[in-house]
Specification:
By secondary structure, the protein is α/β, with parallel strands linked by helices. The chain folds into 2 domains: about 110 residues, 2-Layer Sandwich (Transcription Regulator spoIIAA); about 70 residues, no CATH class. It has 6 helices and 8 strands; from the N terminus they run ββαβαβαβαβααββ. The strands form 2 sheets. Strands 1-2-3-4-5 form a 5-stranded mixed sheet, with helices on both faces. A 3-stranded antiparallel sheet has the order 6-7-8, covered by helices on one side.
């Protein structure tokens, strides 16, 4: 039984491609799930999973792709498409109800085209942990709401994003990626910092000055 899956991640125009190699079974599916979660946390526009070099030893392990696709559809609203499965895996994917939520295409180009067409409108910005980061975040919200014709969401989204960015400036103190995603009728805002520490709840207010008013 294989205990290792190799994974190559490559950024291509409009999509992120994950190439898996090795043997997929009920043990190695865990590492596949972890890698897909890591890729989705970066909030790509779309994700293509290349199965050409993946040997599927247990058809039940294919459920890892359905789980990842369902999670991605909820957050961060990223379409997932599988491509180039070997014949046995392709047959199992076609027969498995749980995996019918994930589109499968015979080659990477077709999968990338499908995934890119299904991608939600998204804006990103890389911000430094400086005093005017919150102002820059609000400008990004104004740009997005104007571009997508949702002016009524500009105020609430600015408040939420200002708080998130301010938290990074005060606590993580690392560069951050701000992402706005349109999933009508909602505008989703997300901030990813570079801190390796897990987020934790704080029950007392920070006595320091507010950074969000800049």
């Amino acid at each position: 039984m294989s205990t290792r899956i190799s994974c190559e991640v490559r950024e291509e125009p409009a999509v992120t491609v994950v190439r898996l190699a090795g043997e997929l079974d009920l043990v190695t599916m865990r590492s596949v799930h972890t890698e897909l979660e890591r890729c989705l946390a970066a909030q790509p526009d779309a994700l293509v999973v290349d199965l050409e070099r993946l040997a599927v030893a247990d058809r039940l392990a294919l459920s890892v792709f359905a789980a990842a696709a369902r999670r991605a559809a909820d957050w961060p609203a990223v379409p997932v498409v599988l491509c180039a499965p070997p014949p046995t895996a392709a047959a199992w994917l076609a027969e498995t109800t749980a995996c019918r939520v994930v589109p499968v295409r015979p080659d990477r180009a077709e999968a990338a085209a499908l995934a890119g067409a299904a991608a939600a409108p998204r804006l990103r910005a890389r911000l430094e942990p400086v005093a005017d980061a919150c102002r820059r975040a609000r400008e990004l919200v104004a740009d997005a709401c104007g571009r997508w014709n949702i002016p009524e969401l500009a105020g609430p989204a600015s408040l939420v994003l200002t708080e998130l960015v301010g938290n990074v400036v005060r606590h993580a103190r690392t560069p951050m990626q701000v992402t706005l995603t349109l999933r009508r009728p909602y505008l989703r805002v997300a901030v990813m910092d570079g801190s390796p520490a897990d987020a934790r709840a704080v029950t007392t207010r920070d006595p320091g000055p507010r950074a969000g008013a800049g």
